[in-house]
Each structure stands twice: as C-alpha cells, then as structure tokens.
Amino acid sequence: MTIVADAGRALAIAGVALLSTAATNLEANALHRALTVRNIENVTATDEVERLGRQGLNVIHAIVDFQTAAWAAGEVAPARVQEWLGLEFAEGFDDDGNASGSTLTVSVVDLVNVGAADIQFDEVRDEVQLVESEQGIGDRFAGLAPRIPGLHTIVLIRVGDKVIVMTTSTVEDSDPEPLLTSEALVELARIVAKRFEP
pLDDT tens-digit profile of 82-116? Predict the structure, then answer.
C-alpha cells in the first residue's frame, strides 16, 4: 500500500493508501541506473529511520512524485532531469496525504549525466547556502543545520548522475523535535549513498 504525496503538501496526487511499517526490501534494485516508482522504496526503509531516530519513534512513509507535482503546479523541471522522486517519512499522514508531526524527506533527482548532476548539485548548494565538505559520502557532499523555523537539517549528496537531498523538518510548532538528529541524518545519508553506487 502506498501514499503518493504532493511536493509541498499543497497538491494532492492520485493513489492514496497507507503504507505499513514493515521494512522495505533493500536489495540493490539498480538504483545506480534508472530511478523509478518501483525502486524508490529501496533508497531507505522505515526500520532504518526508526533505528536512527529518537527513542520510541514509529514512522510510516509516502512515495513523493516531485516531478509530477511540479508539472501540476505549472513548473517545468530542467531538461537535464530524467526523474525526480522521493520518500517522506512521518509519524502519520492525514486523509489528504499531508504529514503530521516531524518529517524526513528524501528527494532523489536522476539526471542525464554526471555533468548535469554537478550543475544540479551546485544550484541546490548555492541556493540553500550549504557548506560542501569531504565526508566520504557519495562523490560530493554538502550539509547545514539552517536557522529557519521548522527546518532542522539539510544534507545534499551527489552519487554518479543522481543528486539526493535529505531534510528533517517539523510541520507543527507543537512538535519541535526532528525525527533524526543532524548526526543521525548524516549517518543515514552514508547508508543511502552506498545504495546508489554501481
């Protein structure tokens, strides 16, 4: 069972049904090749998020088709983007597919080649003012804990022709604790990056 959520919790995209918290099959399903709705769930699993998250954390996740949501909003992705999918983890989702409580969003952009991925990485890094550093995670890594209400940590990775953005945030003022600490998000990024290696 799958929820297809919107890109900014503003667009409802078809196919709504709740996912169970059972662990996703994490076999290498060719993530380093083409990214698809069928293999996006191999990026990470609810049990990994729960293990790295705060004590007693119990999450479910939704598949997010960012590219379709952008088209529905009248935005066009650059020609270098082949696919743009992701996963949103939360402690719950309402009937409209909106997350409740703190969230972890994993966004994966599949680009036409490594050069295009570097352009995408640079654009995101510069727009969000992330700090690029050598972490031994993917081919390139940048991250930041911004001082923006509701946004806790952002991690940006390039692995081959894929750019991965991972963010922890809160959607309610009453829930200031993120699902993962900054350190736990970096550890999850390390796990995720390895799944995209050939």
Answer: 999 999 999 888 888 888 788 999 999 999 999 99
Maximum alpha-carbon separation in the chain: 43
User: Distance between CA 82 and CA 134 in Å, rounded?
Assistant: 27
CA distance 168 to 143: 12
Residue spans of the domains in the chain: they are: 4-195
Token pair in block for residue 110: 């599949």
Helix H, strand E, coil C: the string for 108-149 is: EEEECCHHHHHHHHHHHHHHHCCEECCCCCCCEEEEECCCEC
Reported as a single tens digit per residue, the pLDDT across 171-189 is 666 666 889 999 999 999 9
Q: Assign domain 4-195 to its CATH architecture.
A: 3-Layer(aba) Sandwich (3.40)
Instruction: Tell me the whole-structure pTM to 2 decimals.
Output: 0.80
* DSSP sequence for 27-66: S--STTS---TTTGGGS--HHHHHHHSSTT---EEEEEEH
